[in-house]
Records
---
Amino acid sequence: QVQLVESGGGLVQAGGSLRLSCAASGSIVSINAMVWYRQAPGKQRELVAGVASGGSTNYADSVKGRFTISRDKNAVYLQMNSLKPEDTAVYYCRAAGPLMYAWGQGIQVTVSS
């Protein structure tokens, strides 16, 4: 099993930056992809950015050029720059492998205008 714990959220003004971290523990060798999702009030959860074990990345169009995802052996990070009020959401980390997946508990990001 894999456990995920997010950190780094909070309140920031529009135009500011935050860096989210997601630390993985447990059977981390089973992880292939690590992905950040977010869910704003009244909206469906959406993919923000993902990174595969080989290092390839993908981003939602709404965050391209502003967010950067990276990972090391047992963590994934999301550097968020030029934040906008519409980035306000609960951000979730997800790890997936051939025989497993796991979600973090979520962390709040609030961007004030």
Note: Residues 90 and 108 are 4 Å apart (CA to CA).
---
Amino acid sequence: VQLQAYGGGLVQAGGSLRLSCAASESVASLNVMGWYRQAPGKQRELVAIITGGGSTNYAASVKGRFTISRENAKNTVYLQMNGLKPDDTAVYYCNAITRIFTTYWGQGTLVTVSS
């Protein structure tokens, strides 16, 4: 599975961005897709996941501000980020886990939130 993430950029605090992750195969066939992020000097952390059945889960730090969704017809998963904070600054990575539990990563996309 190849994953192409895009949509990052520079935004002021309180602003919004939408990240997209285009997969090379049907996102509905994948077990789980998700977004992770890694800030400078910190470990990579889970941001949000969506299962093949459509269930979602979020990190406590983004719950209520970020929304993960998918568009099966476009084999794409999105991360809508609202109310961005400087602490959200990080490289965001798209992740996919297949039904045989193989994990794939996309290249990162940088999100910078200025105060």
Note: The mean pLDDT is 95.
